[in-house]
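Q: I'm writing a short explainer about Hotdog domain-containing protein for a general audience and would like to include a description of its predicted shape. Could you first generate the structure from this sequence?
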Amino acid sequence: MTDHNGTTVTHRRYIPYSHAHYGGDLVDGAYGLGMFGDVATELCIITDGDEGLFASYADVQFKAPVKAGDVVEATATVVRTGRRSRTVEFTLSVVCRADPARGDSAASVLEEPIIATTATGTVVVP
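A: Of course. Here's the predicted structure. Afterward I'll give you a sentence or two in plain language.
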């Protein structure tokens, strides 16, 4: 069995305004969970040559709002390697945010990313 602990994958994505689901251009929490599924899939391909299956979340914490116009980064890191399972820690960070006070299309790179969502999950591979 190969130890994959520490293996990390990151995806970055712009969130279009068409994904705003609530007032204030808020995006639902499921958006970040979908990105966690995508980074977990790539992580399984890298570590095991298979897309794997997402088995469960042990913990999900919504820590800050995600808004349309944000650029977010989803990161997955293997923290435990079992025979067929991998425990993975996930983080969704906001790295850029729209700045409508400066103009309709204005946006800023954040000096410090905002941690929006964290989770721990389990994936299984054949």
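A: For your explainer, you could say: Residues 5 and 82 are 10 Å apart (CA to CA).
Q: Perfect, that's easy to follow.
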